[in-house]
Design a protein that fits this description.
This protein has 240 residues and is α+β, with helices and mostly antiparallel strands. The chain contains eight helices and nine strands.
C-alpha cells in the first residue's frame, strides 16, 4: 500500500507527521516545514503493542480522527476542538523516494494506513501543499480504541514501556516538540494528558519529571528524533 501511494506521487511527494515524525528522524533528514492540516483531531487512541508497550500491556500512541467521526462518538464539548492539527511536513525528492518508501513500509505498521490531505505551512508566504500523505490509524483498524477516561489513560501511559522506550517519554517529548514548532502549535489534549500523566506518577510515589521535562526543547527534539530513528527492526520503529 505504501509502495503504491509513493510511486503515484514520486515526483512531488510530501509527508505530514503529527507524532514522532514531527521531529526529523532518518531518513527524513530533509528541511521540515512546520504547519497544520484541518478537519482532524489528534488523540492518544491507538494501542501500541510493539513500540511503547507490549502485547500484554499495550501502550498508547497518537492517531488522527476525522471530524465527522469524532463528532459522532464524542459528547459536544465547550469549547469544541479546533479540528486543526499541527505538525511538520517533509518534501521527499524523487531520488530519495525508494529509501523513504522502505523506511515507511517498516515504520507505519500495526494499524496505520495512508490518507491524503491538504497541508498549510505556518509561514504563509510558502505555498500550501494540495496533496500531503499522512499515516492514520483509522477507526476500523484493530488497534483503534476510541475515547478513554483521561486519568486511566494517563496511568497506563505512565507505567507502560516497550522496545522503543517509556510510553510517558513519547508523550512528554511530543508535548515539548509541539511547543518547539511555534505559537499556536500546542495541543490541548496532549498538554492535559501530559499533566495528568505526571500526576499519575506522583500519585504512585514516583518523580513526575522525566526525560522530556529535564531537557531543553532543542535537546528533547534531538533525543526524540534519535530514539525513533536508531531502531532498525520493525518491532523497534515508532508511529507517525
Amino acid at each position: 500500500m505504501a509502495q503504491q501511494a509513493i510511486t503515484e506521487t514520486q515526483s512531488n511527494f510530501w509527508l505530514f507527521g503529527y507524532g514522532s515524525v514531527t521531529q526529523t528522524p532518518q531518513p527524513l533528514n530533509k528541511p521540515r516545514v512546520p504547519g497544520y492540516i484541518e478537519g482532524y483531531v489528534r488523540r492518544f487512541w491507538q494501542a501500541s503493542e510493539d513500540h511503547r508497550g507490549t502485547s500484554h500491556h499495550p501502550g498508547r500512541v497518537v492517531t488522527l480522527i476525522e471530524r465527522s467521526h469524532y463528532d459522532s462518538i464524542v459528547q459536544p464539548s465547550t469549547p469544541p476542538p479546533s479540528y486543526r492539527v499541527w505538525g511538520a511536513a517533509y518534501h521527499i525528492p524523487q531520488e530519495h523516494v525508494k529509501e523513504v518508501q522502505e523506511y515507511l513500509d517498516i515504520r507505519e505498521i500495526n494499524g496505520y494506513s495512508i490518507q491524503y490531505t491538504p497541508f498549510q505551512p505556518a509561514a504563509h508566504e510558502e505555498k500550501p501543499v494540495e496533496k500531503c500523505m499522512v499515516y492514520i490509524g483509522l477507526p476500523s483498524n484493530p488497534q483503534f480504541l476510541g475515547p478513554q477516561d483521561l486519568d486511566r489513560l494517563a496511568a497506563r501511559i505512565w507505567r507502560c514501556k516497550g522496545p522503543s522506550g517509556e510510553n510517558r517519554d513519547y508523550l512528554f517529548m511530543l508535548a515539548e516538540a509541539l511547543k518547539g514548532l511555534g505559537g499556536g502549535a500546542e495541543d490541548e489534549h496532549v498538554e492535559e494528558l501530559a499533566k495528568r500523566t505526571r500526576k499519575a506518577g506522583m500519585d504512585r510515589g514516583e518523580d513526575g519529571a522525566t526525560l522530556g521535562d529535564q531537557l531543553p526543547i532543542e535537546v528533547a527534539i534531538e533525543q526524540f528524533s534519535s530514539a525513533t530513528s536508531d531502531h532498525k527492526g520493525s518491532e523497534e520503529m515508532e508511529k507517525p
